[in-house]
Structure formats: structure tokens, C-alpha cells
Design brief:
Elements (H helix, E strand, L loop, with lengths): L9 H25 L4 H16 L3 E4 L2 E3 L4 H8 L1 H18 L8 H26 L4 H30 L6 H33 L15 E4 L2 E4 L18 H16 L11 H9 L26 H43 L1
Antiparallel strand pairs: 1-2, 3-4
Helix pairs in contact: 1-4, 1-5, 1-10, 2-3, 2-4, 2-8, 2-10, 3-4, 3-5, 3-6, 3-7, 4-5, 4-10, 5-6, 6-7, 7-9, 8-10
Length: 353
């Protein structure tokens, strides 16, 4: 649901940009509590994985497709503050280099896709995991529901922004019904992808799933037919006698998966317009759409200029996108972590004075 330039007027776009900038600023501070030496590179991996999976449009109805937004997945895996930063990095990369999502609409896209989905999904996930039995199955089911609800919620917020600052005069009731209706279907796909990914990580490394931390009882995993406590998901340093498990293998596996999805599987993605594009065409809200400011980018539309072979062009663009996202994202998250360490050291020095 990448909003292009021209859908929303300038005042509302600016207001959404201010809101998005505030959310990012708050998230930069909040992410200091979520990131450490293990999770900083994992957050970069999550951003790259979301970039890759967003290239995989799946059919949801006749002539309509959808793709992962990723807010629920990122929030559950790395925490809500870090998730907002992950989605912001992805949307920034897509807008600047791939001409996907308007540049003047960047604030709208971060608000709708990066903030609303994270807040709704993480709040609902924590509510459900607090009410249901502390098992992997319950956590996976909670991830499914949270992801499902987050997508139509973002569509509803887009409709609200369009009602306030839409550039065409269309009955808002028709836009709301069409947007929420199609995004409920897209939400099912989002929920399946999120639940499968969260369930897979819980199966192999439950200690890396931020969303199951702080539960009143330990998460239970079924091993050889019996329920056992999952490894404690804690951010506190472990004793020297029991060092924290390395995340290198997990990180490499995740990055290779992202490269395969973006570089190979993306060729088989649905070419149908996504939910917003379909609604815009059907309802006429795209009458004043503007050409993207990065339309001349060599990576525009997820292809590499001057490469005629569609499979090679799209695959190479996907690999470049994943590489750029993991580098930029990891760099930002390492910087946030370093800022956290510097603040901690400064506080200790002040106490010792």
C-alpha cells in the first residue's frame, strides 16, 4: 500500500511527515532499550527480510494482489520502537531508489505502513499472549491475529487521511468500504506470512523473539511430545559460564533467505495491481497522481536499467535492495546501540564523580 505523490494534498502530507518524523524520533530513543550487541544486526536483517518479502505480491482477488507490510512481523521479532525504524528504512530505500511510494508521500507511508501497523499489531499481540496459555502455538496464533488486524487498520487510517486531504472529490464511504474490504483479504496473506515466520523463529531461537519477553510465565515449547520451558528471552548479560548463544548462523540463514526471495522468487510474484492501486483505479482517486521524482532511477520499478532480461534485471534489483537495506539498517541500529552505551557510560561517570 505504497501511496504515490498526488493522492494526498500538500498540507496533509506535511502534517503526516511531521507525525512520522516524531514517531521516528521517539523510536530512536525507545530502540535504545530494545537493541544490544545481538539484536542490532538482527534488526538490520529484519528490515532486509521485509524488503525482500514486500517484492512478493500474492493474488487476493480477481485482478488484485497484495504484499506484506511487515509491521506486525518486525514488532514481534525486534520490538515496536525498532520495528518503526525498520519500516522507515525499508520505505526510504523503496521511495528513493526504486520509485515505490511517493517522495512527498513518504510521511504518509511511514505513518500508515510503519506506525499504525506496528502499534496495532504489537498492542494486540501482547494482549493476546497475556490472555492465552504461554505456548508456542498460542504465540503463533496471536501473531496471526495481530498481523491480520493491522492491515485493514492501516487502510482505515489511509482513508481518514484521504478524507481530510484527498485530491479528488470521491464519496469517502465508497473509499472506506473498498479499501478496508480488499485489505482484509491482504491481511490474511500478511497473517499467514507473519505466523509462519514467527513460528519458525520460535521453534529454533525463541530467545530472539522480543514479543514473548516479560510474560508472566515462561513460553512453552513441545519437545519429543512434552512441554518444556523455552530459553529465557532476556536482554541481561548471562554469566560467563553460560555465554549467550551466537546469532551468526541465524543471521546468515536469514540473509540468504532474503536474497533468494528477492533475487529469485520475486520473478514469480503476481503482476496484478495491489490493493491501493486497484481501489484507486476503480474509485477514481488516482486522477491527480504525479510522476515519481525518482522515476529515472536506474532501479525504478525494481529492475536494473540497461538489462533487457526481465528475470536477471528484477533479480539483481532485488539483491541490490536487500544488500542496501541490510547495510543501512544495520548501520543505523549499531549507531543507536552505541548511543545507548555512551549514555550508560556517561551516567556511570557522573555517579562516580
Amino acid at each position: 500500500m505504497h501511496v504515490p505523490d498526488g493522492f494526498i494534498d500538500a498540507p496533509v502530507s506535511v502534517a503526516a511527515g511531521v507525525l512520522a518524523a516524531g514517531a521516528v524520533a521517539v523510536s530512536l530513543r525507545g530502540a535504545r532499550r530494545e537493541l544490544d550487541e545481538r539484536t542490532a544486526p538482527l534488526a538490520g536483517l529484519v528490515a532486509a527480510f521485509i524488503f525482500a518479502v514486500q517484492m512478493l505480491n500474492f493474488p487476493v482477488a480477481a485482478g488484485t494482489s497484495g504484499h506484506l507490510m511487515g509491521g506486525a512481523l518486525a514488532a514481534i521479532l525486534v520490538g515496536p520502537y525498532t520495528a518503526v525504524l525498520c519500516l522507515s528504512v525499508v520505505l526510504l530505500m523503496q521511495g528513493i531508489f526504486f520509485a515505490d511510494g511517493g517522495l512527498t508521500a513518504l510521511g504518509v507511508n511511514i505513518t500508515v505502513m510503519g506506525v499504525v501497523t506496528v502499534v496495532v499489531a504489537y498492542g494486540l499481540f501482547r494482549l493476546l499472549t497475556g490472555l492465552l496459555p504461554r505456548t508456542r502455538r498460542s504465540a503463533t496464533a496471536s501473531a496471526f491475529v495481530a498481523a491480520l488486524v493491522s492491515v485493514p487498520a492501516s487502510a482505515a487510517v489511509f482513508t481518514l487521511l484521504y478524507w481530510i486531504g484527498g485530491t479528488t472529490d470521491i464519496p469517502i464511504g465508497k473509499v472506506f468500504t473498498a479499501m478496508v474490504g480488499v485489505h482484509v483479504l491482504i491481511g490474511i496473506g500478511e497473517a499467514v506470512i507473519t505466523a509462519l515466520t514467527v513460528g519458525a523463529v520460535l521453534a529454533v531461537r525463541p530467545d530472539l523473539v522480543h514479543g514473548v519477553q516479560g510474560l508472566a510465565a515462561p513460553l512453552k515449547l513441545r519437545v519429543d511430545g512434552e512441554l518444556v520451558d523455552a530459553p529465557a528471552a532476556t536482554r541481561e548479560p548471562e554469566p560467563a559460564a553460560a555465554p549467550a548463544r551466537s546469532t551468526r548462523g541465524f543471521w546468515i540463514t536469514g540473509l540468504v533467505s532474503a536474497f533468494l526471495l528477492a533475487g529469485f522468487v520475486s520473478f514469480y510474484a503476481s503482476a496484478n495491481p495491489d490493493g491501493l492501486e486497484r481501489v484507486a483505479a476503480d474509485q477514481g482517486i488516482d486522477e491527480k497522481v504525479e510522476e515519481h521524482g525518482a522515476a529515472d532511477s536506474p532501479l525504478a520499478d525494481y529492475g536494473v536499467g540497461d538489462i533487457a532480461n526481465a528475470r536477471l534485471s528484477g533479480g539483481l534489483a532485488g539483491v541490490i535492495g536487500v544488500s542496501g537495506t541490510v547495510v543501512v539498517g544495520t548501520g543505523i541500529f549499531w549507531a543507536v546501540r552505541r548511543r545507548k552505551e555512551e549514555s550508560t557510560e556517561a551516567s556511570r561517570d557522573h555517579e562516580n564523580v
